[in-house]
């Protein structure tokens, strides 16, 4: 308990004094996980929506694949990404291993199936009669899609929250492809692991508390959007 | 389009979040300035590299990407040309890389020593014994021993002691492999009231958090020797040859050697590493 309490004090001290390392690590965390979530939203929502609204041969298999992807172990994604990005690996000529870009790639691979899977479920659960009604009222295809996504917005926002939560809390892939380089690819989760290895539990606890606080703020913002009163 | 406002706001919000730190971080160093240093966990967990790397970066303008892994992985990365420079502590395994031509400019940097730590009440009675006798006593008592199990320099050293003691511990119930770095392994040993083999630097760094005492030390077989080496740029053209050469030179330079010797004196009252550049061990 003592460590937790001292960790709380330490977290407050680091935040109040704007400790340079901690601010840097926090900003890096937001940058990497924010970008990865954004990209996975841009890829995942169209995939989920398409799968929900179309029927084609192999659709069932594709849906299983997306649902399987929702549970992809980050460490496996990390290893695969690492192997591809190594200097003498297939994508080595980019030279981006051990950079925030590599972390964004790995996190995007983790988050995209999550976003796609949840938005698939969200769009599919919109009442089919409503779909017919929208079309019957003479909506064009883009209007139809917008209205449908609006009806599914609770689930769509849930998909974004889940995707973001998946990547900001992830440590295995970030450690592997980012390398936990100080001031460059060190994020809150990998810094916590390192501080535990160094035996600095108060600092590790402080970093965890900052991570929880950061995640809460962002998820609370998204939840506010999700839950505010329906517009007329 | 009012209805899409919510989603649009989310997307804009995420975009701003993503972009802000990029702008804040400002311009980055050119690409060829990157130098990948593959090293063992003990140099990072003890805090030594946190002191040395900024000095090197300031002096030379390189940006060092310190990848802290077990010596096994560090050497494997060097063997495949995935790192530029290595700082490791497994002379026998390093020799193979030197012989195969994977690394060049192989230089002695420093040493410290390994110690056998265990619970203060010492159930297997290893206190004061030599490393081989201590391991024999642990095996005879079937006391818990926590091994790194990760092919690191420390793990290689531990295996060589088991071999000398003519004991095959793997698979035994009392022999547990943590698969983690030294700091985490010490914590495990402390929680399980077991024994472990650790480098002195990591032990001193973790000492305040654990209930482990040094029970066997000073044995000649327990020296822990660190070498620095360049990955051979002639063999692996992608290696940053100038950068790795600069790093090796930096590590053996007299000022750096002095910093290595001073490191830890303030905090622990003793040196964690002993500079050795230019000496013969």
CATH class of the largest domain in chain B: Alpha Beta
* Subunit organisation of the chains: heterodimer
- Radius of gyration of chain B, in Å, reads 22 Å
Gross morphology of chain A: globular
Distance between the termini of chain A: 50 Å
Explain this structure:
The complex is a heterodimer of chains A (232) and B (281). Helix content of chain A is 76%, strand content 0%. Chain A has 232 residues and is mainly α. Chain B has 281 residues and is α/β, with parallel strands linked by helices. Chain B folds into 2 domains: 31-112 and 225-275, 3-Layer(aba) Sandwich (D-Maltodextrin-Binding Protein, domain 2); 113-222, D-Maltodextrin-Binding Protein, domain 2. Chain B is 44% helix and 20% strand. Chain B is built from 12 helices and 10 strands. Chain B has helices at 5-25, 41-45, 48-60, 71-79, 91-100, 131-141, 153-164, 182-191, 200-206, 241-252, 254-262, 265-268; strands at 34-39, 63-68, 85-88, 103-118, 145-147, 175-177, 196-199, 213-216, 223-231, 274-275. In chain B, strands 1, 2, 3, 4, 7, 8, 9 and 10 form an 8-stranded mixed sheet that branches. Chain B has a two-stranded parallel sheet with strand order 5-6. Chain B starts with a helix and ends in a 6-residue tail after the last strand.
């Amino acid at each position: 308990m003592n460590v937790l309490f001292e960790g709380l004090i330490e977290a407050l001290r680091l935040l109040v004094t704007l400790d340079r390392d901690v601010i840097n690590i926090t900003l890096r965390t937001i940058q990497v996980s924010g970008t990865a979530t954004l990209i996975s939203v841009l890829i995942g929502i169209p995939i989920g929506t398409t799968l929900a609204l179309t029927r084609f041969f192999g659709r069932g298999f594709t849906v299983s694949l997306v649902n399987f992807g929702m549970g992809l172990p980050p460490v496996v994604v990390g290893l695969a990404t690492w192997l591809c990005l190594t200097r003498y690996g297939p994508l080595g000529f980019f030279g981006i291993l051990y950079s925030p870009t590599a972390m964004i790639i790995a996190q995007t691979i983790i988050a995209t199936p999550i976003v796609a899977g949840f938005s698939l479920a969200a769009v599919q659960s919109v009442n089919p009669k409503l779909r017919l009604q929208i079309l019957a009222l003479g909506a064009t295809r883009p209007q139809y899609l917008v209205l449908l996504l609006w009806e599914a917005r609770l689930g769509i926002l849930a998909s974004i929250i889940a995707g973001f939560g998946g990547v900001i809390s992830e440590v295995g892939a970030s450690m592997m492809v980012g390398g936990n380089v100080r001031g460059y690819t060190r994020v809150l989760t990998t810094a916590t692991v390192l501080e535990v290895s160094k035996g600095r539990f108060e600092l590790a606890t402080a970093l965890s508390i900052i991570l929880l606080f950061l995640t809460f703020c962002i998820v609370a913002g998204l939840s506010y959007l999700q839950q505010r009163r329906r517009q007329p | 389009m009012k209805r899409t406002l919510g989603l649009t706001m989310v997307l804009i919000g995420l975009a701003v979040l993503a972009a802000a730190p990029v702008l804040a971080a400002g311009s980055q160093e050119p690409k060829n300035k990157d130098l990948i240093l593959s090293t063992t966990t003990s140099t990072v967990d003890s805090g030594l590299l946190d002191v040395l790397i900024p000095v090197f970066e300031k002096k030379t303008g390189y940006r060092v990407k310190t990848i802290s892994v077990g010596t096994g992985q560090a050497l494997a990365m060097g063997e495949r040309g995935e790192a530029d420079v290595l700082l490791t502590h497994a002379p026998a395994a390093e020799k193979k890389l030197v012989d195969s031509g994977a690394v060049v400019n192989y230089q002695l940097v420093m040493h410290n020593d390994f110690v056998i730590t265990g619970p203060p009440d010492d159930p297997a009675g290893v206190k004061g014994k030599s490393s081989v006798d201590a391991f024999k006593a642990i095996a005879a008592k079937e006391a818990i021993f926590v091994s790194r199990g990760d092919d690191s320099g420390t793990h290689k050293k531990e295996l060589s002691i088991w071999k000398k003691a003519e004991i095959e511990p793997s698979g035994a119930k009392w022999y547990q492999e943590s698969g983690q770095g030294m700091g985490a392994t010490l914590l495990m040993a402390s929680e399980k009231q077991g024994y472990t083999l650790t480098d002195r630097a990591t032990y001193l760094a973790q000492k305040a958090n654990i209930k482990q005492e040094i029970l066997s030390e000073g044995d000649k077989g327990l020296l822990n020797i660190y070498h620095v080496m360049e990955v051979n740029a002639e063999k692996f053209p992608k290696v940053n040859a100038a950068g790795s050469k600069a790093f090796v030179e930096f590590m053996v330079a007299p000022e750096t050697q002095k910093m290595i010797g001073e490191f830890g004196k303030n905090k622990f009252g003793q040196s964690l590493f002993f500079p050795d550049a230019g000496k013969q061990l």
